[in-house]
User: What shape does this take?
Amino acid sequence: MTALPTGRQFVLTWGIPRDFGGLTAALLQRSRLFDRRGDVPVHVLTCDDREDAAEVAAELTRRGALSGRVRVTNLWDWLRENDLPGRRVRAADGFDPLPESAVEEPTGGLTRRRIRVDANGTVQQIDHLRADGTLAVSDRRDVPRASGRRRRVVIACDPDGTPRAAWNGVREVYRSWLDHLTAGERSFLLVDSKAMARFAADYRRPHVVVLHIVHGSHLTDDGTAIRASRAEVFGRLGAFDAVVFCTERQARDARRHAGPLPLLSAVAHPVTIPPDVDVASPRRGAVVVSRLAPIKRVEDAVDAVGVARRDHPGLTLDVYGDGPSRALLEARAAADSAIHFRGFQPAAVSALATASVLLMTSRSEAFSMVVAEAMASGCLPIAYDVPYGPRELIDDGRTGWLVPAGDVAALADAVRHAADLDDATLSRMRREAIARARLYDERAILDRWARTLRRAARRHALRRRTWRFREVLRRRLRVR
Assistant: This one.
């Protein structure tokens, strides 16, 4: 068993939606890997204030997304049941609990929060309630300053409604919460979301090693610039003890933007190789396994299969997944009885064991876990040639096919070509695809994580000495 470095393991992300996609699936997969093969428990922390915690928990269970020592805790749920140290509440904090009339729809039969919005629908205050209806936390976002500007104040209350502790803004709450949970013990904090990375870049504690994991491509679609959504964090990569990408190529490209200072590493997602994959029996049909959202361009797969069916009328397409684009996609394919939308199914990966090809049409990918899973099952991927995952995984013409991004005609040609190949050629390609996927088995990936965490811990120790030196220097200058 690979030994991870000594320390508690925390994962920080914004939230886990019920219809979660690749980022959440990857962080939960990594957490299960640390638990089952690394023999360490993992505490996943979320900070969104949605009220569907029970539904999300049920969805995680239905998907088999958690293992025995992987647990998920939401900040606001935790504050309903626990005390957190904060500063003294002041009159200027504007503590003003909302009346019972300011109620959101009850969730699971309980009113868990009250909300106030302005005329534009912008949230100005959320009061989080305990199960018995008492006020636990008041999160007010429009407390007036003397200057006329507004500020955010979070106030925790005792069960009798008495305000007990306050924080100037939600980031102070995050810091206090992490300090409380880590309790001064050596800890690793793996930050998976862009939103929480903005906060975590400033979270520095002697006992906490902070790593940011970049799941998606950091580049614009044309590959010429940093995406606006990542610009803030990418301007501060040196603030983390390590930044982890899914592919070596992306890490190299990021180095050109980040300069020599940050510790950049590459760790792919682990891939499970099913036992006794049948590569000899003929397979027919194409499959898509994807969140149904505009960035995934599933309409291109639908159109390409429609074109390919003119020459191969027996070709079928099964689409597994759900999302905001589903209704439009179903309408687009309504006239073609060979295209089926299966919705989200936890066992969708098993469809890869019988499908001939997987279609991957995303605008961008980091590792593209579904491509690796398809290859592990002997399902040959036909993927748009986008940074970074498909290029790293697919040996064009040997383990699958790469086609120009956005070229539906080329995609249809590739589908036709795969359908024209003889069974012997397809069997050989399926064996090579499985061999390629074995490079990412769980033991290899866990070894890579162990090395990355140790490197991050060493860099953290060096930075601690620098912080101490600067603090001593500042104190001496103040004395003078």
